[in-house]
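Researcher: Next entry: DNA 3'-5' helicase (Natronococcus jeotgali DSM 18795).
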Amino acid sequence: MDSASPPAEPIEPRGRQRDVIESDRACTSVDAGAGTGKTTTMLLRVERAIERGEVDPEDVLVVTFANEAAASIREAVAERLEPDVAAAITVSTYHSLCHRLVREYAYYLGYSPEFEVVTERKRRRIVGRLLAEREYAFAATSVGDGSPADLADAVDRFVATMSREDIAPADLRERLPDTRTLELCQEFVHWLERRAEEVLSFDNEALRYFNREEHLEAAREGLVEYGTLISYCREKIAEAPAAFREDEVVRDVDGYLRVLQRCVTNVYEALDLDEPTTRQLPRALFGNRIGGTGTDRIEQTPFGRLKHYVEYLRLARHYAEVYADYHETLERERAFDFDELVRTATDLLADGAVADEIAGQWEQVYCDEFQDTDATQFELIAELTDGPGRPDLLAIGDKDQAIYGWRGTDRRGLDRLAERYDDHEGIELELNFRSRQEILELTNRCAYADGSKTLRENGREHGTYEADDPPDRVVKVESDELDDPTAEQVATTVSRLLNGTCENVPERSLEDVAVIVRTNRHARLVADALRERRIPHERSGSPRGRIAPGIRTLLS
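Model: Predicted structure:
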């Protein structure tokens, strides 16, 4: 925008946006649904606060996640305010804010201000270099497809997780069980896995056909045999020396075995010839197999959780040495990775000698997309703003759009503000400016178990439609209604829609049906299932191996 251009025309707040602007609490959290104008509402509050003389622009800090988002906010601020006013506002990502604070107080911390920040890409290069240059005993047997790159990916993910969780190498080694303890736990898992294959798989005639009384008895006998093995494993633990029996990991494994025992009893009672789908329970819960498909990565079944836990401990023992060497590399090079950078800045804000000086740089702090904060970032903002004489905080986000749980983010971040701050107000924005009410009603009726709000179109009320008839209601297909894996369930449901055999839903044509999936992998599975049923379909999106520039930017 030309520096001489006048500010944009004022925007009048609508719905509860006005409540956000007028809130005078020390902490205001805003749960704003999709299309409700999250960033616009935040910027309206900044604009009004400056116009009213409540705050000087140089005392305003706006924090968001990605560089692109920060640039977008800077551009929006420049459009709303006079150039000199807009330039005085600090707009920053979490990482750039922490980099600034640590650099400003580097000598106080005992570092050079020229310290290096290790990006995710460089972290992976460090891990790869360590694996190439040092002889780790486990490296001879890699994971995945067996390639060095595959092993480097696995170790890098482990290093990233440990760093994000702030687990020091020494603490990690101390928490891990010794080799013999881990080997015994692995033996329990192998015994149970083999026994499930022998007596609870569909190679067993009883569970394959499951239509006669003798099938029911045979299936129950298999469960009794499996339960006997669980009891034997637990007896071995109970009879072991106290040092083994009282090990934290062994207690965890015994807890998993106890749950498996209860499941055996429940499944024994649930097996019923009149409910043939119950035959799926033994191999799903104890064999970690669903619909004939092996699910090595499933962690939701009782046995799957136990297997994953023991396997992760095995990998942790292998990778702990690399993690320690990674930390030594950072210390030697006087470098910080992103997680350590945020923690160091947070420690500064908790240091009474300098905390007030740092926090005194701002009077108002605004956090965008707060649902994507992880525990470390939450603590950073809390240390900066919580307490007498600290800046006021406005945190805005959408709890229903928290998508980075795999990176440690916590969708409860907005709720936790109410627990952390005494002077707090929570506001919900439900007025949608982007979508038609028919679309919003469809979303609302999905009734997600953890959904936080109900959206409505600006100028429309819930339950009102432009057409005479309301939109088709949402039909939920429970996963246990069909004897198929998820992709096959989707294909079966599509087939029913096309044949007009879905209850309470009229027959549909091909162009009426769309399948939305979370990942490309899920898309491939669904496409394969549709192809098997000879259902014509078109798969949209990028081919495997090609990433759209916008997605590449987000991933970086």
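Model: Note for the record: The CA atoms of residues 319 and 456 lie 50 Å apart.
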